[in-house]
Amino acid sequence: MSTAAPDALDRARRKAYVRLLPILFACYVIAYVDRANVALAKLTMVRDLPGFNNAIIGFGAGMFFIGYFLLEIPGTLLVEKWSARKWISRIMISWGIVAALTAFIGWRVPLVADAAEWAYRLVHRPFNLAEFQFYAVRFLLGLAEAGFFPGVIVYLTHWFPSRDRARALSWFLIATPIAQIVSPKPTNWLLRIGTDETIKGVVVHHPEVLGLEGWQWVYIAWGIPAVLLGFVVLFFLTDRPGHAGWLEADERDALELELKREKALHGASRHMKVTEAFRNPKVLLLAAAYFFIVTGNYGVEFFMPSILERWYNLKLDDLTWLVIIPPMGSLVGQLFIGWSSDRTKERRLHASVPIYFGAAALAATLLSRGNLWLTVALFTVALAGLKAYLPAFWSLPSLFLTEAAAAGSIGLINSVGNLGGQVGPTVIGTVETVTGSFRGGILFLATSMAISATIIILLGLGRRVAKPEPSADPLAEALIEPA
Fold it and tell me: How many angstroms separate the CA atoms of 113 and 106, rounded?
């Protein structure tokens, strides 16, 4: 290799970080807000929608993942075989529109409402229009977003060599804690619309806007950025290095050569068809591990605000400050695990140990009731465990899979795993509705997390490489020396 090639490769890596990751990061921030803002919106939704309780909210929140499951694998394969830019753009525009439509549950559309009522009567259930619409719109939101997350994971393999991949993933994945940090206060401000608030002993009414309540504006206001970002993706994302006009010719050649070299080295001994990958025990065990951790993750995320409000009788202003704290632990944990996992080339313990710590902290919250700050601290450790493992975990499939097999398997792992997003909220919401307590649900979520970590440990993938290949952080280099 010539002496110029490493320099060209490093320049290409830095430019890829600076060009691609901010766009993908912004998309995932909005995706996660649109997926999870029901956790806060529900606090006022239940006042305006008769019959809504935690069982309905939990089941409806989880309906997202049923729709997500159905289109996840085809969507991921389209990223590999067709165009990440076009597919991700379509995803964002459609999910933004559907997310905004959540604002209108409870509105009666005659023919649709009549058909839904007839279907409910077939199964001998009392009909609640808003409940049906909530389930339907969450299901459609899942269909709309399906393929985004695993598609981005596959897309990153088109741009980043293996030595950069976990770190690139960590910078993308921190969008989830960032979303949880930046969204509560704007959501709180929106939730005031149409409500009464006591300020210095005086009751102040915040009027409706265009006849809509605050929780409705939460869905509309956070849906619009998704549509706008869909067009940003279409015009500024690039499918592969060979299509990148913003790279110099030697940079494109160097990056493509490095990616082809890795693929040839990897694929020579490990190539596997998609159908074989779907039957591979390692793929199935990774899907199971992801299912159990996602069960814990969304159970906590959708109900942590409700738990804190119930245990400590908090006002919405105070609550939306407190729920910002736990995601900060997730942010620090993800960045550290991504850095450490790439530095050591060890994935197994970096994925499992944080989950064990998170499970223990979540279970310990039951002993902390009565001490607000201890409860918040334990939720912070729990959320760190529920997020920090992600960069190391998503580096595991590429250790034994390539190309379409990797894309399809990542889609399979993510789609099957995300069914846990239906189970976790449904269990904790139903248990609370039946027993009047979150205790049983919390223990269920902590146990699910521990099972996930144990599967990863026993799987044995991602043990430490004896002589890790040194690499600099291209993002840090780019910040110091702009490309």
Answer: 10
Cα(35)–Cα(243) distance, integer angstroms: 32
- For the stretch 289-314, pLDDT in tens is 999 999 999 999 888 998 999 999 98
Give the angle 352-324-364 at the CA atoms, nearest 5°: 50
Query: Nearest Cα to 386, choosing from 340, 327, 437, 429?
Result: 327
pTM: 0.74
Closest CA to 298 of 99, 138, 72, 137: 138
Alpha carbons within 13 A on the beta-carbon side of 22: 10
Each residue of 305-355: pLDDT tens digit?
989 999 999 888 889 899 999 999 888 888 888 788 878 888 889 999 999
Residue 455 to residue 315: CA distance in whole angstroms: 40
Nearest CA to 170 out of 300, 333, 383, 407 is that of 333
DSSP, collapsed to helix, strand or coil, labels residue 199 as strand
Q: What is the DSSP letter of 183?
A: S
DSSP bridge pairs for 209: 212
Across 141-172, b (16+ Cβ under 10 Å) vs e yields: bbbbbbbbbbbbbbbbbbbbbbbbbbbbbbbb
Q: How far apart are CA 107 and CA 113, in angstroms?
A: 9
What is residue 198's three-state secondary structure?
strand
Report how far Cα 121 is from the mean position of its chain's Cα atoms.
36
The answer for residues whose C-beta is within 8 angstroms of residue 235's C-beta and 6 or more apart is: none
Please state, in angstroms and rounded to a whole number, the distance separating the CA atoms of residues 184 and 423. Answer: 24
Residues contacting 429, CB < 8 A, separation 6+: 53, 54, 55, 56, 57, 58, 59, 61, 302, 303, 441
Confirm if 233 and 27 have CB atoms less than 8 A apart.
yes
Structure tokens at 356: 């064990």
According to DSSP H, which parts of 389-465 are helical?
Answer: 390-393, 403-417, 420-435, 439-459
Tell me the two tokens of residue 401: 């899979």
